[in-house]
Design brief:
Shape: elongated
CATH architecture of the largest domain: 3-Layer(aba) Sandwich
Distance between the termini: 121 Å
Strand order of the largest sheet: 4-3-6-1-2-5
Order of helices and strands: HEEEEEHEEHEHEEHEHEHEEHEEEEE
Number of strands: 19
CATH superfamily of the largest domain: Nucleotide-binding domain of ferredoxin-NADP reductase (FNR) module
Bound molecules: flavin-adenine dinucleotide, FE2/S2 (inorganic) cluster
Low-confidence stretches: 45-51, 329-333
Number of helices: 8
C-alpha cells in the first residue's frame, strides 16, 4: 500500500516537474521572442532614423531642383497669433505641387499689391520652422508700429497688412526661399543661436531643424525680449529644451514686469550681450548665429570679436526697416569728384549726388524705377546690371551679386557708371 502511495506521489511530483519545465520553456521562448521583437523594432527605428536623415539630405538636394523662378501663388492655410504683435502664417502652394526644402535660416520674398495701389511692394520674411514639413512653409511676422521718435509717421505698411487684411484662404505671391544666412546641417560643431525679438524666426528654424533631425549637436539658444508679453514661442522653446538634452535655453528679459518669474519665465535680467552670457557659456568656442535689430547685431559682432571669436564663426542677419532710406551719415563716403551715372533703359544721364546713400535712393529720387525689397543687401530684389564702370559697397550683401551686377541698395559709384535701369 505504502509503495502505491509513494509511486503515486512520485508520479504527481514528476508530472508537476514536467509541467513546470514546460511552462518555463514557454516563458523563456516568450521572453526570447519579446527581446527579439524589441531588437527588431529598434533596428527598424534605426533604419527609419537613418532613412529619414537620408530623406532630409535628399530633400536639401531637391531644393535647387524644385525651386521656382519669379513669384508663385501660395494660400494662407492658417494664421496663428503668437504674441500680441507677432502672428505666424502657414502657407501652402496654391498649385498643390511639391514644395522645395530650404536651408534653416533662409527667407521668402513676398510681392504684395495693396488695394488701390498699382505698384506692388516687396518684403522679405524668414522661414520660422524647420524645413522638414514638405507640405507648407511658415513665416512669423511682427506688426511694426510708427517709430517712437516719429509717432505721426505711417505704421509699417506690409507687416500691418499681413496682420489686419490677410486671412485664411487668401493668396499671396512668393519667391522661392533664398538667403545666405543659414545653418549648414552637415556640420556637427556646437552653436550659439542668438535672437532679439522677432529676430527669433531664422534661428528658430535652425533650432527646430537640429532637434527634428535627432541631431545631438550642442545648442545654446539665447532669446532677448522686453518681458513675458513679448516672449514669443515660449511653450514651444521650453518643450524643445525639456525634450533635448543637447539644447540649453536661456531667455533674457530687459524689462521684466513684477509678475514675471526669474528662473521660471526667464533666466537673465538684462539684454542678450556678451557681458551677460559670458558667465553662462562654457567657452567662446562656438559658431554664433545672430538675428536681431541692426544695433544689437552690431554690438554683438563687436563684442564677440573682442572676446576672441574669429570673424568666420560669427554669422548674422539684421531685419532693418525696409521703407526707411539710409541717411548720408550712415555711409560715411564723401568725394569732390563729379561722377556721371547713366541709366541706359530710362535714357537719363545724371550727375551723382554725394548726399545720396545708395544708387537705389539716387535712382528713386530721380524717378527711375528699380525694384527693391529689404534695402539692406539681403533679398537681391534691386540687383542691377552694370554696363560699365565700378561701384563701392556701403553695406554687407547677404549674398554676393552675380558678376557684372550690383545690389543698388548698398552700392555707390566708384567711377562713372552705366546701369541697365
Ligand atoms: C532677410 C529679411 C528677413 C526678415 N524676416 C522677418 C521676419 O521673419 N519677421 C518679421 O517680422 N520681419 C522680418 N523682416 C523685416 C520685414 O522684411 C520688414 O522690413 C518689416 O516687416 C517692416 O515692413 P513694413 O512694410 O511693415 O514696414 P515699412 O512700411 O517698411 O516701415 C518701416 C518703418 O518705417 C516707418 N515709416 C514708414 N514711413 C515713414 C516715413 N515717411 N517717415 C518715417 N518713418 C516711416 C514705419 O512706421 C515703420 O516703423 C525681415 C527682413 C529681411 C531683410
Ligand atoms: S533691396 Fe534687397 S538687396 Fe537691395
Amino acid at each position: 500500500m505504502l509503495n502505491i502511495i509513494f509511486s503515486f506521489v512520485a508520479l504527481v511530483f514528476l508530472l508537476g516537474l514536467v509541467a513546470y519545465v514546460l511552462v518555463l520553456m514557454a516563458n523563456n521562448s516568450r521572453i526570447l521572442s519579446i527581446s527579439q521583437e524589441k531588437a527588431k523594432l529598434e533596428a527598424e527605428l534605426f533604419q527609419v532614423k537613418i532613412k529619414s536623415i537620408m530623406d532630409r539630405r535628399e530633400l536639401e538636394a531637391k531644393q535647387v531642383k524644385l525651386a521656382w523662378n519669379g513669384f508663385r501663388k501660395f494660400q494662407v492655410v492658417s494664421k496663428v497669433q503668437e504674441t500680441k504683435d507677432i502672428t505666424s502664417f502657414y502657407l501652402a502652394p496654391h498649385d498643390g505641387k511639391e514644395l522645395p526644402g530650404f536651408l534653416p535660416g533662409q527667407f521668402l520674398t513676398f510681392q504684395i499689391t495693396l488695394p488701390g495701389q498699382s505698384q506692388p511692394v516687396i518684403r522679405c520674411y524668414s522661414l520660422s520652422d524647420s524645413p522638414y514639413h514638405p507640405d507648407r512653409y511658415r513665416v512669423s511676422i511682427k506688426r511694426v508700429p510708427a517709430p517712437r521718435d516719429n509717432p505721426s509717421a505711417p505704421p509699417g505698411l506690409i507687416s500691418n497688412y499681413f496682420h489686419d487684411s490677410l486671412h485664411e484662404n487668401d493668396i499671396v505671391d512668393v519667391k522661392a526661399p533664398s538667403g545666405h544666412f543659414y545653418l549648414p546641417m552637415t556640420k556637427k560643431t556646437p552653436v550659439v543661436l542668438l535672437a532679439g525679438g522677432v529676430g527669433i524666426t531664422p534661428v528658430l528654424s535652425m533650432l527646430n531643424a537640429i532637434t527634428e533631425m535627432g541631431s545631438q549637436r550642442e545648442v545654446w539658444f539665447f532669446l532677448g525680449v522686453r518681458n513675458k508679453t513679448e516672449h514669443v514661442m515660449k511653450e514651444h522653446l521650453e518643450m524643445v529644451a525639456r525634450e533635448n538634452e543637447n539644447v540649453h535655453l536661456k531667455v533674457f528679459y530687459s524689462a521684466p514686469s513684477e509678475t514675471d518669474v526669474l528662473n521660471g519665465d526667464y533666466h537673465v535680467k538684462g539684454r542678450v550681450n556678451v557681458e551677460n552670457f559670458k558667465p553662462i557659456l562654457p567657452s567662446s568656442n562656438f559658431d554664433f548665429y545672430i538675428c536681431a535689430p541692426p544695433p544689437m547685431v552690431k554690438d554683438l559682432r563687436t563684442d564677440l570679436a573682442g572676446w576672441g571669436v574669429p570673424k568666420k564663426n560669427i554669422h548674422f542677419e539684421a531685419f532693418g526697416p525696409a521703407t526707411v532710406k539710409k541717411c548720408k551719415a550712415d555711409t560715411g563716403t564723401e568725394s569732390n569728384v563729379k561722377l556721371s551715372i547713366q541709366f541706359e533703359k530710362s535714357g537719363k544721364t545724371l550727375e551723382w549726388d554725394t548726399k545720396s546713400a545708395s544708387l537705389l535712393d539716387f535712382a528713386e529720387s530721380n524717378g527711375i524705377p528699380i525694384d527693391s525689397g529689404c534695402r539692406a543687401g539681403n533679398c537681391g530684389t534691386c540687383l542691377t546690371a552694370i554696363k560699365s564702370g565700378k561701384v563701392d559697397l556701403v553695406g554687407e550683401p547677404g549674398s554676393e551679386p552675380e558678376a557684372g551686377s550690383c545690389l543698388a541698395c548698398i552700392s555707390i559709384p566708384k567711377e562713372n557708371i552705366t546701369l541697365d535701369a
